[in-house]
Fold this protein.
Amino acid sequence: MIGGILRHIELIRDDVQNWKEYPFSIPAVTNLYRLEFHPEVTFLVGENGSGKSTLVEAIAIKSGFNAEGGSKNFTSSHRPSESRLHECLRIARGARREKSGFFLRAETMFNVSTEAEQYSVYGWDALHDKSHGEAFLWVAMNRFHSNGLYILDEPESALSPQRQLALLGRMYQLVRGGSQFIVSTHSPILMAYPGARILLLDRDGISEIHYKDTEHYAVTRAFLQDPERMLKKLFNEIDSEDDK
Ligand SMILES: Nc1ncnc2c1ncn2[C@@H]1O[C@H](COP(=O)(O)OP(=O)(O)OP(=O)(O)O)[C@@H](O)[C@H]1O
Ligand SMILES: [Mg+2]
């Protein structure tokens, strides 16, 4: 696929008023100049609190999504609590313009489906009969289309491993149809998407990392190879701390 829908974002550093305040105080933002997206799939990974949701949200708002999440058609009345980051971003678009899209905020998926149900449009009212994971996968299967822009914050949170594989399959299908994904994740399954760009947010800022060099891969692999050994070591450490 030549070019993407979004090419990169840039932090207009001169527009930042206070580097000591959230969100500019987060190292991933403090050290942000330009972030290049893969034309197909880009993952944002990093510890809890490293700034993934903050960044994902700002990218989504800057791309034209509602801060509350959902497709671009939704204008939610719920009060968003977005940061000011999007006001200091410049976004560079590729040659292709998206024909559809979705911004998934894990914590506001419920609001989105509630609103959709109110208007009862496009069969969205089907969502409330479903579990969180079922609802999200239903949306991905039925409301994600070719040439779409999909910005997803931890989509794995509601999904079983089997459903995460189903999501990977759906992503593959949509990427073949010209869609682009920007996804924050902790899931070693999702981030295995072949050829994806994985961006690690940490104390030093944002850097690209190979799948097998991620902590997610290394820790999961070590754990699954010998769960008993790893747990024994962990609990022994706790016992000896408690005995001190
Ligand atoms: N509205 C806010 N006001 C002040 N600080 C905030 C606000 N929202 C988040 N933060 C702080 O900014 C940092 C980054 O938060 P963010 O939610 O972006 O992290 P994350 O990488 O998405 O974490 P997780 O993996 O737990 O979802 C955290 O230290 C958090 O406490
Ligand atoms: Mg988050």
Summary: The chain has one domain: 6-111+145-213.
